[in-house]
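In response to the reviewer comment on reproducibility (Comment 2.3), we provide here a single inverse folding case reported in full, input and output, so that an independent group could reproduce the run without further information from us. The structure tokens appear first.
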């Protein structure tokens, strides 16, 4: 549903005087197909992202100097 409203939202952002959002919209439009797929397809990388986050935190914890 959100992907269907994306082109309308992009047009509304372009009409407003919000340079920060214009930059964001430029990035979205560079790969609009991937953004639309991410909003509509049922697959998620949430589990993988959770594992990556856990590994990064463990790595940081290992680098803390111990007294």
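Designed residues, in position order:
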């Amino acid at each position: 549903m959100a992907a269907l409203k994306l082109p309308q939202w992009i047009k509304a952002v372009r009409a407003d005087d919000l340079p920060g959002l214009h930059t964001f919209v430029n990035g979205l439009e560079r790969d609009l197909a991937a953004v639309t797929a991410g909003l509509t397809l049922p697959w998620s990388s949430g589990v993988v992202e959770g594992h990556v986050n856990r590994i990064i935190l463990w790595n940081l914890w290992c680098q803390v100097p111990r007294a």
